[in-house]
Known about the structure:
64% of the residues lie in helices and 2% in strands. By secondary structure, it is mainly α.
Amino acid sequence: MSDLPAARWWADDADKAHAERRFLLYAPAWMLTLGVLMLLGIPGRLSDVGMLAVSLAVSLPLLVVPAIGAPTSAPRRLRDRYFIKANLWLAIFGFIGNYFLSEYFFDVLGMVYAFPLRWTFDAELVGQGKQSVPIAMYLLTQPFFVTYHVSATVLLRRARTSRRGSHPAARVALTALVAYVWAFLETLSMANPLMREHFRYRDMPTMLRYGSLFYACYFLVSFPLFLRIDEREPTPLGRCAIEALAAGMLVFLLLDLITKLLRA
């Protein structure tokens, strides 16, 4: 008889389970909102202020929706709530991705940003500096990363608490699969004809085949580390920040090593 607990989707911790459900409940709303905006061609007509307003509108609910109807069995300070820790972790990780790692997508994978925006912010010495990252992208990254990481957490937990998925090799394989699927889907959905004037890849077929593997390196690192937040014991807010910084640095190293191999 195995001593594994019953297979489960949701966290044992009531506060974490509540936030996971609320994050995933909100996912269709932000996806539909951005889809409609792209269909109407609105991003290409927005000023910096307008784009920031849209970004805030789809990002702020990530701090509001999980706070509604919170479990009352074990009241916690705001800093101890899971949704605060998750948002902090992913905001740090997403900042590193936009500030530093976007340069690899520009220079190695041929990603092109052509938004009519002047407010930009990215690394000074990393990359060729021919393209810049709009500030609004930092906010827009948050709903994407929250959905990816929370859905991956739920799937990986289900695997880890089942007989077949509890083997380390099975967990690694599932992590790699989920990482690649999300990377591929984002690449496919964002680089579409509706956005072509403002966001595209110079060689889309190559990006879908190989660039998605490149992007999946983000999640191969981040999914297992993000899952650890409040999973077995409470995770201090400070440790969430430290682990997010560590994850960002590890992805930085991976992308640079892969770039060396591609250019060898």
